[in-house]
Write a structure and sequence with these properties.
heterodimer; A: alpha/beta; Rossmann fold; 8-stranded mixed sheet; 6-stranded mixed sheet; 22 strands; B: mainly alpha; MetI-like fold; about 0% strand; elongated
């Protein structure tokens, strides 16, 4: 495409930054785009949320604002207009000047962006030297002011610390302070709160929002988390497969989402205020080069018609300031946020206890990390363990699953004490309690085929072998919505969601009565999380399996669990039926967790 | 709520199959080049005796004369012929020693890593004691006390002196694997320890171990040749690359080829195995196979 034809646009006066007709392709595969047809304006003092699932190209767009593409990708077309200059057309010296000074970037993992061998204060001063800010005398004070602005201590003791001596939230705020020091006009934030606890995340988001608005900074907030977007953004751009699917004000996007993809995303997100029947989006996000022709969402869209496959729809306005890339935008009816809500579980339901923990104390060496935990789990019931990192929730689940040996107290399964560690347990106990790990990329042996992985528990527990076992594997894969085609695959050929389904199938292969699920959806996209939760719910209903569900996501608890245990530094601070705990929390800690959890309802 | 499961994912469209590790290695210049050299020298040593112009101990002329391609040696035997005869034993001993050291070392390393705690501590400290001896010294201590060493003794000695080095590498690789969740998953199911090691851990160590074995082969050749140079061989009259260097060193000034020819072959072979090992290690480092 010729860029010369679009020359007249240079006459307009933009404040903030504007992306025009951006297309980024792969250098190794001509004709294949990573992102295409991106038009986006960031106004001063405005936070624009760029949301999409993994593989949607959101980070690629974010870094393109700095005139940067990762190795192997190249900007093929388009402009980044900043103060009426095209960033992409500038010589590299000027781009380098621009980066950090006018357009700042906060990476996803700030710990890796700070030098571990240089003290915090020195690092900030060094940044100012590099940018030519202040004088030798004023820089240290400048560093202190910067830290104060993000709500961090700025005494000498703090300035002398190394980055490993700070908590995750503090590191992130140092990164924010460093990004704000040169007083940039544009800020690109790439999932800066992923991996932080909700209370810390709440703090960082609040700091960031205040800074952007007071300094009149145009910010692009890149994330996969719609709930965070709902709390911080003024406008929202939803990306799918390298294109913007829907763009509009925050309230418009969350109250009347019009693109089927936006709606499907919203359908897959749990709410804090009410239990929902979550649903996933069928299929997987297509990779660059494997995207369908026509509308890129057509193969996963429930409203798709033949016309959708014919041509790529244009991003057009449905109302002023709200544009949608869907030809059926006006025809598919309205959407309601309360769609998919179901009644909360009845707190007075009769319970048939299958697993009970009494006075559980857990140790790592001499250090006690969990204290006096008591709770029980009924048949076909889901109990959620909720807490921030370091609360001991995973540790407790590992004790139940037989992965951690150093504990005291009682873990009784149908009245019988369970052994410390799986090797001290009877075959029957090992078979009936199955553990599913957080990260499906680590929990499947990369050298084995899916068939071998799922078959193993059956052979081990003498449930089936040989041909009968293979048939059972196919049956189980079908239950977790995977076709028999994956039998001979190695795990590396599957996506994260598919891997987690395999891990669930492996657990089911042992025909368990209790599933211990350790944050099993936290490594997955929201739409995949939705379908995994739906799958677990159907298993609970059809097989009467009980689940111990470890999570940090309170909204998810509302939709999946019957009872909840809120944990803080190794102790249960509040527990009870989900409705009761979430509707009328008694403890300060629970209230704070609830208040800081991002919500879209 | 169960009704929503109907909308769950249908059969997935698989990602394209990853190229196998071997295919990736074949795209490495280093690996291909090294492999060709290694193969060529190995074939030369293996089939040399069939094509040698003279016999192994046949006197063809005066000592240190320039008769024939590489001249004659200190007894007037043809250097080229002895070169062609002298490789088989060196290579086979080195290869078997490498196999032995890889198997033994891997076992030690994996058991130490998987056992953890005291096991790890005790095994690896003992390993360090062995490591602190120079390899050649360890071999010589035993060999000098025996009048006429057998080939299997050389294999065992070279193999065992290499094993602690392989063990260190194997432990390092295994440490990264035993803390992975799929090993925990196998343990939670109550798999036997031996099966966890054999079925879960070992298959994931192929590539790094292969690279290490290539390196060990290089060292083994050197060690076997060095032992030969020091005059310790299974048959003093038989040709042997290492021994040839020793026998002919007095004539270095008059008939250099008698020394240089075996030196070059050994050098060529070690370069070949080293490049191959390096190629494997590089493919492995880029982490393509995960």
């Amino acid at each position: 495409m010729s860029t010369a034809a679009q020359e007249p646009t240079a006459t307009r006066t933009t404040s903030g930054i504007a992306i025009e007709d951006l297309r980024i392709g792969l250098t190794a595969r001509p004709g294949v785009d990573v992102v295409d047809d991106i038009d986006l304006v960031l106004r001063p003092g405005e936070v624009v949320g760029l949301v999409g699932e993994s593989g949607s190209g959101k980070t690629t767009v974010g870094t393109a604002l700095l005139g940067y593409t990762r190795a192997g990708a190249a900007i093929e077309r388009g402009k980044i207009l900043f103060e009426d200059k095209d960033v992409l057309g500038l010589p590299w010296q000027q781009v380098r000047q621009l980066r950090g000074e006018e357009i700042a970037y906060v990476p996803q993992d700030p710990a890796s962006a700070l030098n571990p061998a240089i003290r915090i204060g020195r690092q900030i001063v060094e940044l100012m030297e590099l940018r030519g800010l202040g004088t030798d005398e004023s820089r240290l004070q400048g560093a202190r002011d910067g830290l104060a602005e993000v709500g961090l201590p700025n005494d000498d003791e703090f300035l002398r610390r190394y980055s490993h001596q700070l908590s995750g939230g503090q590191v992130q705020r140092v990164a924010l302070a460093m990004a704000f020091l040169p007083k940039p006009k544009v800020l690109v934030l790439d999932e800066p709160t992923t991996g932080l606890d909700v209370t810390t995340q709440g703090m960082v988001l609040q700091t960031m929002g205040e800074l952007c608005r007071t300094h009149g900074v145009a910010a692009l907030y890149v994330t996969h988390d719609l709930a965070v977007i709902a709390n911080i953004a003024d406008r929202v751009a939803v990306m799918y497969a390298g294109q913007i699917a829907e763009l509009g004000d925050r309230d418009t996007i969350f109250q009347s989402p019009t693109h089927p993809y936006t709606r499907a995303l919203l359908d897959s997100i749990p709410h804090l205020s009410q239990a929902r029947a979550l649903s996933g989006i069928p299929g997987r996000t297509p990779a660059p080069g494997a995207r369908p022709s026509g509308c890129r969402f057509n193969d996963r869209c429930e409203y798709a018609i033949d016309e959708c496959r014919a041509a790529v729809p244009e991003l057009h306005d449905v109302t002023p300031g709200h544009s949608v890339r869907c030809i059926r935008a006006g025809e598919i009816g309205t959407w309601d946020i309360s769609r998919g809500t179901v009644p909360d579980t009845d707190p007075d339901k009769k319970r048939d206890i299958i697993l009970s923990l009494e006075d559980l104390g857990v140790f790592y060496g001499h250090k006690q990390v969990v204290f006096d935990v008591n709770f029980d789990l009924g048949r076909a019931e889901v109990v959620a363990l909720v807490g921030e990192s370091g609360s001991g929730k995973t540790t407790i689940s590992r004790c139940v699953g037989g992965l951690h040996k150093e504990w005291t107290g009682t873990i009784a399964f149908e009245g019988n004490q369970l052994g410390h560690g799986s090797r001290k347990r009877s075959v029957d106990d090992r078979k009936r309690i199955q553990y599913i790990f957080q990260n499906p990329y680590l929990s499947l042996n990369p050298r084995l085929t899916i068939e071998q992985i799922v078959k193993r528990p059956m052979e081990l527990f003498g449930i089936a072998s040989g041909k009968a076992a293979t048939e059972r594997v196919v049956e189980l894969l079908d239950q977790v919505a995977l076709g028999p085609a994956v039998l001979k695959y190695q795990a590396s050929r599957l996506s994260g969601g598919e891997r987690q389904r395999v891990a669930i199938a492996r657990a089911l292969a042992a025909e368990p009565d209790v599933l211990v699920c350790d944050e099993i959806t936290s490594a997955l996209d929201v739409s995949v999380q939705g379908s995994i939760v739906a799958l677990l719910e159907s298993l609970r209903v059809s097989r009467g399996i009980s689940m111990l569900f470890v999570t940090h996501n309170l909204a998810l608890v509302r939709s999946i669990a019957d009872r909840v245990q809120i944990l803080n530094t190794g102790r249960v601070v509040e527990s009870g039926p989900v409705v009761q705990v979430m509707e009328s929390p008694q403890e300060e800690y629970t209230k704070r967790l609830l208040a800081n959890s991002p919500r879209i309802d | 709520m169960s009704a929503t499961a109907d909308r769950a994912t249908p059969a997935p469209t698989p990602a394209p199959a990853e190229r196998s590790t071997f295919q990736k290695m074949l795209r490495q210049k280093r690996f291909v080049f090294g492999g060709i050299i290694t193969l060529a020298v190995a074939l030369f040593a293996l089939f040399g005796p069939l094509f040698a112009p003279y016999g192994e101990n046949e006197v063809v002329g005066p000592p240190y004369s320039s008769q024939g391609v590489f001249g004659t040696d200190y007894l007037g035997q043809d250097v080229l012929s002895r070169l062609m005869y002298g490789g088989t034993e060196v290579l086979i001993i080195a290869l078997l020693a490498t196999v032995l050291s890889t198997v033994f070392g891997t076992l030690i390393g994996v058991i130490a890593a998987y056992g953890g705690g005291w096991w790890d501590e005790v095994i690896m400290r003992l390993n360090d004691v062995l490591l602190s001896f120079p390899q050649i010294l360890l071999a010589l201590v035993v060999l000098t006390s025996i009048a006429q060493p057998k080939a299997w003794m050389l294999v065992v000695l070279v193999g065992l002196s290499n094993a602690p080095r392989t063990a260190r590498i194997a432990r390092g690789v295994a440490l990264g694997l035993v803390s992975r969740d799929f090993v925990h998953a196998a343990e939670a199911l109550g798999e036997k320890r031996s099966r966890v090691i054999v079925a879960e851990v070992l298959p994931n160590m192929n590539a790094p171990l292969l690279a290490e074995a290539g390196l060990r082969l290089t060292f083994s050749i050197g060690l076997v040749a060095a032992i030969g140079f020091l005059g310790i061989t299974t048959d003093p009259s038989a040709a042997n690359w290492g021994q040839m260097i020793n026998e002919n060193r007095l004539g270095l000034a008059t008939q250099a080829w008698a020394v240089l020819a075996p030196v070059f072959v050994i050098a060529l072979f070690t370069i070949g195995t080293n490049l191959t090992a390096d190629g494997i290690a590089q493919v492995n480092q880029r982490g393509g196979d995960d």
